DNA sequence: CGATTCTAGTCAGGAGCCTTGCCTGGAACG
DNA sequence: CGTTCCAGGCAAGGCTCCTGACTAGAATCG
């Protein structure tokens, strides 16, 4: 498919990638351990380590503990150099902003959060975002007390491959450059720009905000923004295990309405990133009328006065569950018709509570599909963002 | 990502793949031309040709015409050996069955067709499928009059990598083994088995049929079956040009109802392959009632008596176009909500005729999306099947 | 018609990446 | 204190690629 001309170099790059990925899994290994783990010869492993150390990606940890099973000569342990950088995982919702800095191993090395009183204004949220980003930049990571690192190759000098603004140095005190940021926002996200978009009549919780502009000064690399439901769906997929759930829909029913569609194992975002914006989907309204999903909540008086959000408390206490169940059933029918999922997963603050009502209305569905509540309930969005951030960081390191 | 251990062999396979793909584009080249076309050295090109000839994939054409610009020594031209095989492109519809045999360059080397009187019974269609497959197997290809080929290496002896039934020899008289078959059927197709499935109340034109079982004896490789609308959408995508249309929906409105969804440049098939089965989608029915799309046609008396097909002629002459337009508009609203297409392409025997009515009803849509008639009108399904068959054949040849 | 020109293909030499096999150094075991 | 065991380095060899020089043979020129 794509040409790879300088050929022998290709083999070397495969080897180096193998070494890097193996050290991402095992944290620290001797060259002999690397060789047997990867399945290459010791000289090859040694050469690769030498190259990668020279590029500043690997470092001798200084440890000289005996290799593995007690006997034998002590080995030199190598690990990824802290200079490979870190990732930012950020969630933005109306309740507040949470940001974490992750290292290559997926560990959270720093965390910052800001709560915001409801109703939140967009400028408050932007300020909170800026605050957590600044706090994480200034916070020293907990590790890096391992001892002096000798290999101080040309680090950071030749690494500006994204042309971002370099005024504010995008690194914490510990030298952990932030190479990638992955952001969740509780509103629809434009795929190309990363800006939040306000769809007419839809809940708009976070409000007009450009996370890329706010975070770019803190990141020496890409800033990825997507809808919170998409990230939650990714976490749900990963929680099931590899290949377990390649085609499903994640229906989020809370203050906002959202839906993620996973097809062939990947989130499907569509042209503008607005796949799964179900607010305007036509479904079964009161009296069997064809009604837009979002209009139902207006008709039933279930939206917060003055805002676009759904009043979850009132919904759970006073609403006609049969009517709601029928409407959600219509949405599920559309999902089955157009996305053909293996399962429909229901999440959000009120969706799982109405699961029975939804199920009993699913007779509209053209065929039987499992409808179940989300398995991850703790912080599914943050889990998905973390996984994506870690993935992006590792890809950025491995791919040159 | 995926491990590739025996490493230097990887470089060689890249080179060989390059040579094969280049000869698929240029039909015949000397070793020197190959080298400069690919950007490798002459000795490397020569070695690769030697290897591939030994494996029976390449053959000296016997031509000794001077190389290119008149002067100089004459070169030996090499081309893909006819033994690399051919592909079958098959379309199955209620009107009849068409099958073509394609060579590796995408040329149609043989064609067979059977028309069937309406209404067609499944056994008639199965018989027609068997008939065209047999006819194509027995027909000699038009080429292969080029002269004696000397390099008669071990061909076909070590090539049975699919374990298919070898009773009926899956090759025509010219030795062109059929390595892959791509089949279109005018009904929903189960992704895993390739069988046609009957969804309750939906049009079922071809009827219960197992194309894989019928065609397997004729094919020394995979038989791929999919819905005709999906293939038409692929042809539409390719007709626009690379990267032009990565996210769109193809709405087929004819005797049957179908919809293909292309996302990130690929057809999305879903868990069972029933993505886009819009018959049971809830839309706007007469009087604003929430109605399943397919039920509308029953209510309006637009289905053929005794069958499940839609009566297109009556629809075009007598039906209430505003009602139909509104219903289709509701379907488009669902497509926009759940698939976020760049465009919605309308095809089929009656869809384009109602384009204005559909457009004027698209006020239900949450945002403006281009709605247009299909650009390919000739034989879009066959075009898509051909492209897929050619692709599969080439992949089968290159990938070992 | 012979000399010249031009190109396809081959050969020799060398570089890079990998492997196997052997040797050395040094810690732990008994 | 000798034995055992393992990390790491070295040497030799194989495979793939490349460059540059050479050979072979047809078309063109004078």
UniProtKB/TrEMBL annotation, chains A, B:
Family the UniProt entry places it in = Belongs to the ROK (NagC/XylR) family.
Q: Where are the transmembrane segments?
A: none
Gene3D superfamilies per UniProt: 3.30.420.40, Winged helix-like DNA-binding domain superfamily/Winged helix DNA-binding domain (1.10.10.10)
**Source organism of this protein record:** Actinoplanes palleronii
- Region called Disordered, residue ranges: 45-70, 138-176
Which InterPro entries does the UniProt record give? AsnC-type_HTH_dom (IPR000485), ATPase_NBD (IPR043129), ROK (IPR000600), WH-like_DNA-bd_sf (IPR036388), WH_DNA-bd_sf (IPR036390)
Q: Which domain of life is it from?
A: Bacteria
Pfam families given for it? HTH_24 (PF13412), ROK (PF00480)
**Where along the chain is composition biased (Basic and acidic residues)?**
163-176
What is the name of this protein?
NBD/HSP70 family sugar kinase
């Amino acid at each position: 498919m794509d040409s790879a001309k300088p050929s022998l170099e290709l083999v070397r790059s495969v080897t180096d990638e193998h070494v890097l990925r193996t050290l991402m899994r095992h944290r620290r290994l001797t060259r002999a351990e690397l060789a047997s783990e990867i399945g290459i010869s010791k000289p090859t492993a040694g050469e690769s380590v030498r190259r990668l150390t020279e590029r500043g990606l690997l470092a001798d940890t200084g440890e000289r503990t005996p290799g593995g099973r007690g006997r034998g000569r002590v080995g030199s342990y190598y690990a990824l150099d802290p200079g490979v950088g870190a990732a930012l995982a950020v969630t933005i919702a109306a309740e507040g902003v949470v940001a974490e800095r992750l290292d290559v191993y997926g560990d959270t090395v720093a965390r910052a959060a800001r709560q915001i009183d409801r109703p939140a204004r967009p400028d408050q949220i932007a300020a909170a975002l800026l605050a957590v980003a600044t706090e994480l930049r200034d916070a020293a990571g907990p590790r890096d007390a391992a001892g002096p690192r000798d290999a101080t190759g040309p680090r950071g000098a030749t690494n500006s491959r994204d042309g971002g603004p370099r005024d504010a140095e995008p690194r914490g005190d510990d030298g952990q450059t932030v190479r990638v940021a992955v952001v969740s926002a509780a509103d629809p996200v434009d795929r190309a720009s990363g800006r939040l978009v306000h769809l007419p009549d839809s809940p708009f919780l976070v409000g007009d905000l450009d996370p890329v502009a706010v975070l770019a000064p803190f990141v020496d690399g890409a800033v990825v923004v997507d809808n919170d439901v998409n990230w939650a769906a990714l976490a749900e997929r990963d929680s099931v295990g590899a290949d377990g759930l390649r085609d499903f829909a994640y229906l989020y029913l809370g203050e906002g309405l959202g839906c993620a569609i996973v097809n062939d194992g990947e989130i499907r975002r569509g042209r503008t990133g607005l796949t799964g914006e179900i607010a305007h989907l036509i479904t079964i309204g009161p009296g069997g009328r064809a009604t837009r999903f979002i209009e139902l909540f207006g008709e039933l008086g279930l939206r917060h006065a003055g805002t676009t959000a759904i009043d979850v408390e009132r919904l759970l206490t006073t609403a006609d569950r049969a009517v709601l169940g029928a409407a959600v059933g219509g949405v599920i029918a559309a999902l089955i018709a157009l996305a053909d999922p293996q399962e429909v997963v229901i999440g959000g603050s009120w969706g799982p509570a109405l699961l029975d009502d939804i199920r009993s209305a699913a007779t509209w569905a053209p065929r039987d599909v499992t409808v179940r509540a989300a398995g991850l309930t703790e912080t599914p969005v943050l889990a998905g963002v973390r996984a994506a951030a870690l993935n992006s960081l590792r890809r950025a390191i491995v791919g040159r």
